[in-house]
Known about the structure:
Layout: E1 9-11, E2 14-16, E3 36-39, E4 41-46, E5 54-61, E6 68-70, E7 76-82, E8 89-93, E9 115-119, E10 125-133, E11 146-156, E12 159-174, E13 178-182, E14 189-199, E15 202-212, E16 216-217, E17 221-227, E18 239-241, E19 247-252, E20 257-263, E21 270-277, E22 287-293, E23 299-305, E24 314-320, E25 329-334, E26 337-343, E27 349-354, E28 370-374, E29 386-392, H1 415-418, E30 425-428, E31 437-438, E32 447-452, E33 466-467, E34 473-481, E35 490-500, H2 510-513, E36 514-517, E37 524-529, E38 536-543, E39 548-552, E40 556-558, E41 565-573, E42 578-585
Parallel strand pairs: 30-35
Antiparallel strand pairs: 1-2, 2-16, 3-4, 4-5, 6-7, 7-8, 9-10, 10-11, 11-12, 13-14, 14-15, 15-17, 18-19, 19-20, 20-21, 22-23, 23-24, 24-25, 26-27, 27-28, 28-29, 31-33, 32-34, 34-35, 36-37, 37-40, 38-39, 38-41, 41-42
Amino acid sequence: MLSSSNHWRVFGLKIILSVSSILIVSFCSAQRYDRNWVFGTNAGIDFNDIDSNRIFKTTADNYEATCSASDSSGTLLFYFKRTQDAVLATLHDRNGNILSEGDSVRAYHSSTSGAIVIPSKDQTKFMIFHLGYDKSVPVCPHIFCTKIFLTIVKNENGVLSVESKNNLLLNDFLFEKMAAVKHANGKDWWLMIYTETDSGSVFKKRFIRFLVSDTIISSPYFQDIQTTGVNYLDHIGQMKFSKEGNLLAFAETASKTYEIYDFNRCTGQVGFVKSGSLFGLTAKDESPYGVEFSPNEKYLFISTGYILNVGNGGTLFQINTTQLVSSPVIIGTTVYNYGQLQYAPNGKIFLAGQCTPFSIERDYFNCNQYLSVISQPDSAYPLCNFQSFSIYLGDSSKSTFGLPNMPNYNLDALSIYKADAGEEKTWCVEDTTIKGFILGVPSVEGVQYSWHPSDSLSSNNTAQPFASPSQTTMYVVTLTDTSIKYSCQSRVDSVFVEVRDCSVGIEDILQNEINIFPNPANETLTVSSGNLQFSIHHVIITDINGKRIMNFTQSSVNISLLPAGLYFLRVELTSGVSVVRKIVVQ
């Protein structure tokens, strides 16, 4: 369902966002989107000074689902606040004011991993993926009616407004498990959600992923893992990626188990690693709920509480992920409930807590006014230094089960995506001063290079060979990464070098006069000239090896039958000059 008060557009199964401009952000520059946490009742933590976290008050009133977002400099922009209607929330700016069109956001307050914020490259768009409860369904299958929605917050020179809200991404019922991680290219994102399907005694675990780029949200991809045994319908419990994105884990409340998977940042696919049970280690009604990885990925922390039934008591476990069979180690217990876990910018892991009605008589302090913390999460117990209910939030602020669902915004690209063939070049044959040029970019550690054709290169196995072509040439390089344990091992990139007589050429400004859109594209591709004196004669599309795929003379062409991948588009003008651009078909 699309909101009637916005300009959101759906093309087939792909959702296109309009982006006004592109800001090139260095992979190695730290982005501070996660520096302000807003959660619980009036609670906020500012992590911009990682040595001295500042507690601040907000107008929030959240239970489980919560979200807050900052800009890249660490300034708080907006956050969720639940309404009296438990299935709706409002969006507020840092001063507590409701954003324009920020009311009636379909975010269910009692969803474990209820919201994730992903910014566009230029920070003018903030995509909020949120789990909403579908009240229109009279009888919910498996007692839950959760679906995934998308709301867009627009930031125009510091003025925030909701551009689009409550866009339904998938009309399926889902569990309360949602996580996000950077694609291997360090630019795009994988958004992962989870559910189960059953047929009698056999059921499947279903991972559903979306590829989120700066302008495109893909159609959903499904990966089913068939299993045997009892289907507990474990819709409650956190799901988290490790800091480096190599692992994915979630807690299952009803079955009192946890599962850990390998994750491929190139393909978005999971691979089962291990599972474990907490039966016999907790009280009768105590259930696994929160999960979080240590930064080095060696340990998984799992919190428990009385999630399914009213009671009191919680346990915090540490599990060694490097051991095929490892016994959970209890590192903390409480008469209260432990809630969600979240890794913080200061390298610590914070744990939410919740008092229960049965604990009031022995409540010598208000546990809701505190968070617990694991100060050295890369170390085994007891050196991990767990301090229960040690972070004071203030007299009027309270924690509940939820903490902001913050992905790792600063996860870098894998090595092969830091290496490429370089930019397209034009070489003037009449230039007698320069007899060649350097291709590629500086070498990246752990990457092997294989260039072809090699007859005009100084070397075919270095990052930056010297090229001296006698004719227009497409150079292709195969990049093989030997430094990574998971994910893709190689990819192919290419660069087009045009050799021509520049004395009959046109100005460099021509490159900006040829418009190609959309790019990436999946159905129709349009080519136009912004200047009448640069008339287009015809257009040729080739693969990365220079093989001609198609040519056309009209302004638009249907490319829906082309396989997904990288292509080159050569625009030849009536003057005899040509312009070459890369295009991506999805």
